[in-house]
Amino acid sequence: MIRIEHLTKSFGGIHAVNDVSFEVERGSITGLIGPNGAGKSTLFNMVAGLIRPDSGRVWLEDENITGRRPHQLFHRGLVRTFQIPHEFTRMSVRENLMVVPPAQSGENLLQSWLRWGKVRREDRAVLEKVDEVLDFLEIGHVADERAGNLSGGQKKLLDLGRTMMTDARIVLLDEPGAGVNRTLLGKISDAIRRLNTERGYTFCLIEHDMDLISSLCHPVHVMANGMLIASGSMDEIRNNEEVREAYLGGGISGRMGASA
Amino acid sequence: MKLLEANGIYGGYGGADILKGATVQVDQDEIVVIVGPNGAGKSTMMKAVFGLLHVRQGEVLYKGKPITNGKPEQMVRLGVAYVPQEKNVFPSLTVEENLEMGAFLIRGDIRPRKEKVYEVFPKLRERRKQQAGLMSGGERQMVAMGRALMIDPQLLMLDEPTAGLSPRLIDETFERIIRIRDLGIGVLMVEQNAKQALAIADRGYVLATGTNRYEDTGPNLLANREVAEMFLGG
Amino acid sequence: MELAGIAAYLVSFFTFVGIYAILALGLNMQWGFSGQFNIGVAGFFAVGAYTSAILTTPESPWHLGGYGMPFLVGIVGAVVASALLGLVIGWITARLRTDYLAIATIGIAETLRLIVANERWLTNGVRGMSGIERPYADFFAALGLSSAMGSLIVVCAFLVLVYFLVERARQSPWGRVQRAIRENEPAAEASGKNIGRFRLEAFVVGSAIMGLGGALYAHYFGFLSPEAFLPLYGTFLVWVMLIAGGSGNNKGALLGAVIIWAIWSGSEFLMSTALPEALSGHAGPLRVLLIGVLLQVILIKRPEGLLPETTPKTVPFGKRD
Amino acid sequence: MDLLIDLIQLSVYGVVLGSVLALGAIGVSMIFGILRFAHFAHGDLMTIGAYVGLSFIMITDAPIWWALPAGMLGAALTALVVDQAVYKHIRRTQPVILLISSFGMALVLRSIVQIVWGPSVQSYPTGIQRPWWVWEIAIVPTHIWIILATIVIVTALHLFLTRTRIGKAMRAMSDNMDLALVTGIPAERVVMITWLIGGALAAGAGVLLGIDSRLTPTMGWNILLPVFAAAILGGIGRPYGAIAGGLVIGLAMEISTLFLEPSYKPAVAFVIMVAVLIVRPQGIFKGAL
User: Torsions phi, psi of A176, nearest 5?
Assistant: First the structure.
């Protein structure tokens, strides 16, 4: 579904990402792991349109999406979440989700002024969707809370909820488990799995929590020093000597570049 | 009496706690390493100890005296120096000026201290008039550590001192850390290069999801099969 | 004071409040909703005022004009002209960080004031434009009302219209996106919103509303000179009103306009009567000092204003437990 | 030929104006570097400095140049008081709140000037200025003194920033506030010193401007825009760039009078600034505190 071809990016002469290629299959939950500074986030940001690659291409289906802005990618069905949750701080949780659906006619100011009835009708439909998402994520009890007051894990769920408010079916998750306690982590991974099996979402995620990776992801790609060093199932990865070295440090030369 | 004790620390960046009862202790003359998966709260622990993050519960003791939620300035006065992970030099200042900033709180002649740092890092003497921002990653790390040594600390806290360095420089850095320890300075550091760090450590802690999982001598932790597993799960 | 005097005073008081409330609502659109820092309100105010004045006044040897257009054409002209100005400035400053936007907007306002003061063919310069009529006076005279009263009614009518439009904008999905962009730009972009477009829209509509305020001022006051568009009157008071009332909250903007104008005009009255003789020559600066200190106190003690921003009632039906 | 003479003559004026702008812009730049906001009351600090200097020499009957240290002291203390009374309390909120506050503070300072010194135009007793003629260029003695005074002040600042402990700490804080804190640099004290120096530099600009022309309560506000333009042109947060920025803006403003009404001078500065912001939002000159 997403095809990454020979992506390369340097910062100040250091290869953060060096000629990486792989594919994210439709309907998969693809994992991307690697030690800090391996270039995972840089790669992610290139796919998500925040950083322009020095060379290489990103394809979505058969369309070249290299260098597209995030809002353009959004309208092609590709959305992302952030490592540190990005909530709309002083807006309620419900509003946070209501912002997302594209092509709301009320986003046009003239329509809002002149066709209030239609705008309200649409809002009602959006609200129903919001409530459904809140129920799905089991955070309905904080719907009227300011998003800034949520706990870190709840914000992660809200981030995931925002992706559910779209028609997008390919979601890039940047460390969905970072800084989240065990209980919520279970909830998050559960939500990801259900979205994948029940609703046909495709996920590509960066994660450090190996439990989450091994329970969810297939296949898993491993990066180190800006390069792809292994791909396969979690079991194959686990028995790969090079991966072991990369994670425990020492063996791999030139471990440089942007931090994850 | 321990040099530093941080017992049962709870805290985070607002919202949920990242640290959930983590404990770390350092003696004089020892290198203590904190390792663990990302998001375990390693760097957070360092910040909590140094007063950069609010400790919600638990206590930090320095030479037996409580210093929980002290100001960084106070820590420096007590003789604790901290080197953050990134952006740990003043880029527009020269090497020498960076060192002088390290000794900002010291009254009196700081030249002997500078000399002492130049002895540990001879390269810095050659480059003392150079702007720190124009130096390589390895050299910057030397400047950062030299800056921290200027207060003649009893405890040196290093947050991932080898991040982004090549293997040769990593080895050099660890050698220097051993020399610093041999000067009688306690070293507390967080490391991603767990294998090497544990190899030089007198003691190590493995942190996961904000709590202590393992605590042992460096070599013992290295030999521990379960600890190795932690980095790849399962 | 006689009853008639009090009544006349109240009419003038509320007319000014109405005009300032319109300006504050325009600023709320830019700052309160969208987080765009415009301290060149006076510039848009001036463009609106002069545009309507030039379009509607009879021919004069002293300045451009003689088009003798109807009142509503003047109003529309003012709105369009200030919207166009907002479009140009908003487009130039779209990529700038807050501080630069602030400097750029005050720069354009000061430059416009220089043009107004120096281009005598256009505006009669510092001598000002006089004889701007209240074209609605005849209509109200027929109803037995004074033209001052007529001005108040006209201003209030426009205020109601503007309030309605701005409040609906706030409650609409459009306003929701504006607040989302203000709160977290990367997340808004990741949610598929074209940030540049939304920003520009808020800036342009806010500018147009300020232009409308300018036009109403011109017809009410009947005389325009660069003095009226000093940053003090045109920009500073409006900002204090919005901050005091509560930025992001349209009712706050209204409340701020009433309270601050009451303090501002009340202080004039107070100082003309109660000031010791030695200070009587300093009434003007003392009033500015008072408002300036008031702003600092609000920023320190209650930065969210008297009426803090609220969440719009997005839920037309209550599904919540 | 005449055009060339005009051009040179205007360039001399431009350097004089540029000196004044540079002193103001350095202060704006320093405050931005450390506190991260554009200080809108800076022009009115200039005004305060000019008036304090004038009062000092009037009261003590001292020679005119004594106005410079007196005004600098007065404005430095004013800046410190303003910071401690107001800015200090809102420093932990968003920088934009400081921006609004300083905009209000500009009016507060101006009204204080009006109350203390009155609204009328005043001037320094420079006496009759007999120009020296070099070729066909008139050079007024005070202009030489203004440029020299600027050089002295800038040199002193340079020595302060590069030779003293506290000066280096200021540069360190503008480089990296977080690192400065963990190094043990006392941030509040450095901020206070920043205000003292920023205020003193503003007053330097104000007194020199007052000597060159006249004093009005709005003199500082009227020159604020060119000062900002100079700071932005130099790369805001970079004081040495501000010097170059000041000279470029000063020259452009004076030379523009060849073909524009002199009253449009601030607009010229503004247009240059906008052009710079469009092309290079970071400013033109590279350098650091």
Answer: -60, -20
The amino acid sitting at C232 is L
Q: Can you tell me whether residue B190 is helix, strand or coil?
A: strand
Give how many domains chain D has, as a whole number: 1
Q: Is A11 on the interface with B (CB under 8 A)?
A: no
Cut 0.95: pTM above it: no
Instruction: Flag whether D269 is in a domain.
Output: yes
Which residue carries 């925040």 as its tokens?
Answer: A50
Provide the 3-class DSSP secondary structure of residue B214.
Answer: strand
Buried b / exposed e across C239-257, counting CB within 10 Å, b at 16+? bbbbbbbbbbbbebbbbbb
Question: Which tokens belong to B205?
Answer: 């802690």
* C-alpha closest to that of C167 among C25, C20, C314, C317: C25
CA atoms of A158 and A138, how far apart (whole Å): 10
Please give the DSSP secondary-structure letter assigned to residue A141.
Answer: G
Decide if B93 and D172 are in contact by the 8 Å CB cutoff. Answer: yes
How many angstroms separate the CA atoms of B148 and D184, rounded?
10
Fold exhibited by the domain A2-87+167-249: Rossmann fold (3.40.50)
Chain A residues in contact with B164 (beta carbon < 8 A): 37, 255-257, 259
- Token readout for A202 is 């495709």
Tell me whether residues C190 and A113 touch, CB distance under 8 A.
no
pLDDT digits (tens, 9 = 90+) for C56-103: 887 777 778 777 788 999 999 999 999 999 999 898 887 777 788 888
Q: How are beta strands B31-35 and B19-26 bridged, if at all? A: unpaired
Map residue C146 onto helix, strand or coil: coil
Range of the domain at D214: 2-117+138-279
Q: What's the rounded Cα separation, in Å, for the pair D126 and D57?
A: 12
Residue B130 has phi, psi (to 5 degrees) of -85, 145
Asked if the structure places residue D50 within a domain, the reply is: yes
Q: How do beta strands B55-62 and B65-66 pair?
A: antiparallel
Examine residue D189 and state whether it is found in any structural domain, yes or no: yes
Residues 6+ apart with CB under 8 A from B212: B21, B22, B23, B205, B206
Q: How far is C27 from chain A (nearest CA, A)?
A: 17
Percent helix, strand and coil across chain A, each rounded to 5? 40, 25, 35
pLDDT, tens digit, 9 for 90 and up, residues B175-229: 999 999 998 999 999 987 788 888 899 999 998 888 898 899 888 888 888 877 7
Query: In 3-state terms, what secondary structure has residue B124?
Result: helix
Q: What totals of helices (H) and strands (E) does chain B contain, helices first?
A: 10, 10
Q: What angle do CA C198, C204, C207 make, to 5 degrees?
A: 140
Closest CA to D250 of D286, D214, D199, D208: D208
Q: Is the preceding peptide bond at D217 cis, omega within 30 degrees of 0?
A: no
Do the domain assignments include residue D154? Answer: yes
A67-79 pLDDT, tens digit per residue, is 888 888 988 889 9
User: Are A204 and A32 contacting, i.e. CB atoms less than 8 angstroms apart?
Assistant: yes
Interface mutation vs chain A, best among C95, C172, C310, most A CBs within 10 Å:
C172
Dist. CA C16–CA C258, nearest whole Å: 9
CA distances from B11 to B8, B49, B52, D274 (A): 10, 11, 11, 46
What's the CATH code of the domain at D87? Answer: 1.10.3470
Contacts of B16 in chain A (CB under 8 A): 151-153, 179-181
Check CB contact under 8 Å for A116 and C168.
Answer: yes
Interval D185-241: pLDDT, tens? 998 999 999 999 999 999 999 999 999 999 999 999 999 999 999 998 887 777 788
Confidence (pLDDT) at A260: 29
Quote the ipTM score: 0.84
Question: What gap in Å lies between CA C245 and CA C230, rounded to an integer?
Answer: 22
**Of B153-162, C266-275, D72-81, D279-288, minimum mean pLDDT range:** D279-288
Identity of the residue in D178, D184, D288 whose CB atom sits nearest the CB atom of B73: D184
